[in-house]
Amino acid sequence: MRVTRPMLALTGAVVALALTGCGSGGEGQGDGEGKVPATATGSLERLAAEVKCKPNVQTDADEIRQALCGNGDGKFVLATFATDRGQREWLNGAKDYGGYYLVGRKWVAVGQERTVTRLRSTLGGTLEEGSEHMNPGGSHNRGDHGGDGPHG
């Protein structure tokens, strides 16, 4: 089956919404924010093993491999990419739908903010946040909670 970019972005976006749309799960901001290890590399299975999850592969194509995962930190999507460009294109499309992303070289973990922050303590990587209009209460919006802002 030929997987197109719009299909990949839509798949990622649907999964991101499913995972991040249900409650924030608590504070947990300090968890995993201490020492950040060197960014992990490897196959989908190797990365999943690092965070102690058995991947349930949903997409297995030349350009992307994507799986649902869960461990003590929560549920998340783990995706690996054939190219850096493919990864960035996928991220650009998926981030329009909100969510929290832990980004490594040719891989991404997507889930609730608390979950990806905790995964970072094992996998390293960079935290990125999706579109502010799809992340109500996300860090983009934290300045508006006082009630004096335009959205209060």
Protein model, in words:
The chain has 152 residues and is an alpha+beta fold. The protein has one domain. It has helices spanning 5-20, 44-50, 84-94, 113-123; strands at residues 56-60, 64-71, 74-81, 100-104, 107-111, 126-129. Strands 1-2-3-5-4-6 form a six-stranded antiparallel sheet, sandwiched between helices. α1 (5-20) crosses α3. It is globular, with a radius of gyration of 15 Å. Residues 122-152 are annotated as: Disordered.
Order of helices and strands: HHEEEHEEHE
Count every helix, treating DSSP H or I runs of 4 or more residues as helices.
4
Radius of gyration: 15 Å
Major sheet: arrangement of strands: 1-2-3-5-4-6
Helical content class? 25-40%
CA-to-CA gap between the ends? Answer: 47 Å
Provide the number of structural domains: 1
Q: Which outline best applies?
A: globular
Mean pLDDT: 77
Structural class label: alpha+beta
Give the DSSP E fraction (strand runs of 2 or more residues).
Answer: 15-25%
Instruction: Let me know the largest β-sheet.
Output: 6 strands, antiparallel
Instruction: Give the uncertain stretches in residue-range form.
Output: 16-32, 140-152
What's the number of extended β-strand segments? 6
